[in-house]
User: What shape does this take?
Amino acid sequence: MGNLCFHFSSSIFSMLCLMVCPSLCHSNFTLDGLTLLAFKSSIRDPYNHLKNWSNSSSSFCNWFGVTCDPNNERVRILSLPDLGLEGTLPSQIGNLSFLKKLELQSNNFHGGLPKELLQLSKLEILNLSYNTFSGEISSWIGSLFMLQHLSLGNNSFGGLIPPSISNLSKLETLDLKSNSINGSIPLDIGRLQHLKVLCISRNMLSGSIPPTISNLSSLEHISLSVNFLEGHIPKEVNKLTNLKNMYMGMNKLSGQIPSIGNLFMLENLYLASNSLQGNIPNEISNLTKVSCIYVSANQLSGHIPRGIGKFTRLQKLFLDNNNLEGNIPNEIISLVNLKMMSLRVNKLSGPIPGGIGNLTLLQQLDLYSNNLEGSIPMEIGNIQQLEILELSQNKLRGFIPSEIFNMSTLKVLSLSNNSLSGSLPSNFGFGLSNLQQLYLWGNKLSGKIPNTISNASKLNTLELEDNNFEGVLPTHTWAFKILRNPFSK
Assistant: This one.
């Protein structure tokens, strides 16, 4: 047998032989091979991916998903993601003492993590995400000192984040998202100075965000969204100069948005659905690489900073459901890459900037429920990719620009509850070939509804009441849903 059993006694090896397959006692299998067969015997492989895992194979190093070290033929990598495997993780897994990478993500494993994982002292990557593992994350996880990537997200783990996790000084990725973990974020998390990704969103975490996160100087991605975190966003986040993504939405965070002007690398800022107050800091204009800003559903006040015009890479701007006031700054027309903008449910006033037609990539423009005045700029007709135009519940007046009725990409046109006047054009319906929803109620529109409305063949929702239209609604061979009588008063 030679060193067949390595540091294990011959009696233990004999027991393994009897448990797995007695014929292996006379083969050239090492303990790693026996361990892999024990792994296979403890799970279900409904799609037979592990069909070549057999004692008839010349070497387990050639088995599917297995990579060995060429110098000593010990298993170095076990990678079996997305195979539909079912079962629990057997304790024998701890015998793969040369293992550096264990990837079992996107399967149907369940149960707790065996403490024998602690024996994998060389482990650098542990990815068990997208399974249904449960139980607590034990403190022994902090003894896997070589770990660089720990991914346990999208499981059913509960309990606390063990403080011992701060012992993993080489850790670059910590992914615990979408579990049922409670308690607070450990204060010592700031010791993970090589950490690049911290993802603990969609749990049941409470307490405050520790200011020690400022020590995570390598951090590029932080996701704390959908928890019960409260208190202020620490001002120390401004020290995370390598940060690209900051997700803290759907918590109970309060206070002001701190100065984040030093986060020059930031690309995505998500702070929506909290209780943040005060002004949007002017220093936000330093974030020239930002592509998405979501600060919806807070209690922000003051004006939209004019420096917003520097966000030439911005694609999505969501400032809706706040208490912002003042004019929409003209500088917004510099956002030439903008695809979605929602400023709905604020207290914005003044006109819609006339140059808004420069935003030719815009697909959604939502200014619902503000105090905007003046006319609808005809330049909106230049936005040839616009699908949703929502201008209802404002103080707009004048005619509806004819250019709008030629926007073939429009799916939703909502201009209700303004003071718009004039009549619908005789060619109405020809240009709006993709229109599905039309809301014009509560204006001062007059004249007849043209028969050409039938050309808007995809229309399924029409609301026209509380205007001054004449005659009767044209009848058509196609049907659409009239939610309200267009001629009722």
The first helix runs from residue 10 to 20. Confidence is low (pLDDT under 50) at residues 1-28, 476-489. The two ends are 96 Å apart (CA to CA). The helical segments are 10-20, 31-41.
